[in-house]
Every structure is written in C-alpha cells, then in structure tokens.
Amino acid sequence: MLNGSRLVVLLAAVVAALATARLGVWQLDRAAQKVALHDAMLRQRALPALREAELARDAAAAQAQQHRSTTLHGSWLPAATVYLDNRQMDGRPGFYALTPLRVADGSVVLVQRGWLARDVAERTRVAAPPPPAGEVDVQGRVALGPSRLYDFGGGAAGPIRQNLELDAFARETGLPLRPFIVVQEDAANDGLQRHWPQPAADVHKHYGYAFQWFAMSTLIGGLYVWFQLIRPARRRTVADNQP
Length: 243
What we know:
Elements: H1 4-45, H2 59-65, E1 69-76, E2 82-89, E3 92-103, E4 108-117, E5 135-143, E6 160-161, H3 166-173, E7 177-184, H4 203-241
Parallel strand pairs: 2-6, 4-7
Antiparallel strand pairs: 1-3, 1-5, 2-3, 3-4, 5-7
Helix pairs in contact: 1-4
C-alpha cells in the first residue's frame, strides 16, 4: 500500500513521463508532416507548368494547383507593395517583398518577389529595389498565401506588416486579386534573394527534439524506479541482514 507522499511522487513521475513522451511523439508528427508536404511539393512540381489562362479563379482550384510551376506576364503595381517583417533567409532576419502584378485579363496576382535584409540601424527602414517598369515575365510556383507568423494583434495595415490575408488585402486595395500568390523563383537581377526554405529543410531538428523528449521520459521513469523501488528495497535487505 502506497502512503500519501509516495502516491504523489508516483503520480508526478507518471504525468511527467507521459507528457515528455507525448512531446516526443508530437515532434515526430511535425517531422512527418514536413516530409509529406515536401513530397507533395515535388509531385506537383513534376507536373507541366500551368499556363496563365489555367490559373485558379477560386479557392478550390487554387488548392489543387498549390506548388505548381507557372509563368506570369504583366505589369507591376509597385504602389501596393507590402513587406512582411520577421522573415528569415539563410539565418538572417529581414522582409519578404510582395508586389501585385496585373496580368493580361485585368486580374491581379500577388507575387512574393523575394527577400531583403533588415536595416540594422532602423528596422522600419526598407530599402527595397523597385520592380521594373513595363511588362515583365515572372516565373514561380503557386502558393495559397504568404506563410503566417504569430502576432499579438496590430500590424495588419501599412507597407510593413507581420502577416497578410489575401481577401483582406483585396478589400483594402480594391484590386481583383486571384485566390493565390506566386512565389517568384527566376533569377531576376533586382537585388532580392530567393533562397526560399523547403518544407523538410529542418526535419532533422524535429528528430533531435524528439530524441531529447524521449530521453527525458526514459530518465524520469528510470529515476523513479531507482529512488522509489530499487534503493528502498536494497536498504530493507541490508537492514534485514544486520545482526
């Protein structure tokens, strides 16, 4: 029969071991999700490039076209450029530059043009090169929208913001936006970087975290067995054998 204090220790050990083991499983799930997303991207990228006339006009079609390659032809609308803050590339903080592109049928596609470094002296000063005037060709891949970061509210307006929702941006600007963005991937000489992160690029990080959590769970169980079962049993055996 366990007394009150030993029961509390047992419950605490079980809860801690299960919690850390669950965190390990969660990290493995995260790794599996990223691998699956990467594999899906590769399958989509292997399909023929979409012609501009084939690009989605509704959310369901955009979902089916995610990660597909395409080439746009149109004119930039630089006045509506937005910079998403706190984005990293090659381990450096900076901004994603997004600019709408008006295509031949009059609709507009938001293009994630590239990344630029943050000004170390003034974080709100963005010295992005303007997009070229006139008609241009843009090669890239279809995405459902810019990646989202956690924010604490605010920052949803102005040229620098944390996140961007396509529907809200369409209402804000009055532009007839398509229900997707294009992540530019061609080698345009515009001063922006396009080393876009791949979904499975950091998958080994999750495996490492999972190992740490499982090791902690095992350690908790081992310490409980040693201090609550083995060592007391040894002490009782020694006491019983004393004359």
